[in-house]
Amino acid sequence: MKTTGGSEDEKRRAGERAAELVADGTVVGLGTGSTTAHAIRALGERVGDGLDIRGIATSYQSADLAREVGVPLTTLDDAAPDLAIDGADRVAGFDLIKGGGAAHAREKLVASAADRFVVVVDPSKECDSLDGSVPVEVLPSARTPVSRTIEALGGDPTLRAAERKDGPVVTDNGNLVLDCGFDRIEEPGGLADELSGVPGIVEHGLFVGLADAVIVGTEAGVEKRERSR
Ligand code: 5RP
Hints:
Blueprint: H1 8-20, E1 27-30, H2 34-48, E2 54-57, H3 60-69, E3 83-86, E4 90-92, E5 95-97, H4 104-113, E6 116-121, E7 131-138, H5 143-152, E8 156-159, E9 176-184, H6 188-196, E10 201-204, E11 206-207, E12 213-217, E13 222-226
Helix pairs in contact: 1-2, 2-3
């Protein structure tokens, strides 16, 4: 369910700027996806130059890349992230839809645990109000009752199909993903609360009230928005 439309240069600029925010001696949450991958590679270069950090991965993808580029890893059992960096599929102000890579459960966990959460995107992710599909990770045994509940909430759930595997996507946590179409999400916070209360939903991709800053990589450079709390 990717909505990627930006250029690699735009993503790289956003990721690299976020990597500059990581201070020596800190713990950084490593999001998932092609934009965050640029931040992880830039962090690997800084570690090569002597930066002392530890990363907390949000997926097999980010863990493997961190190991490849030399970013030491730790876990939420042993450390709390000072800063988390992650991409998004849709951004309206500081509200996000995430989960295009089906990693949103661990991504939300790490972003919530961090002192500061910085989002890195290209301009194609920006919108006036959240719309489109909300990824919902569900326990395998819950997909049918959860689908009915989501329909009752006005959504249109579709089981995410795997590519290069027959059948559904199975997440890093062993669950399934329902991509839930909603016409226009007028109140993201209200829908997020409703989805969070449905038994069988492990996590949904609405990230409301979590982001502290959004860095948009553009053809000309970067634009950074800071949230005032
Ligand atoms: C993974 C995510 C990603 O952060 C999101 O899909 C953006 O990815 P990309 O930077 O490749 O466009 O939420 O679950």
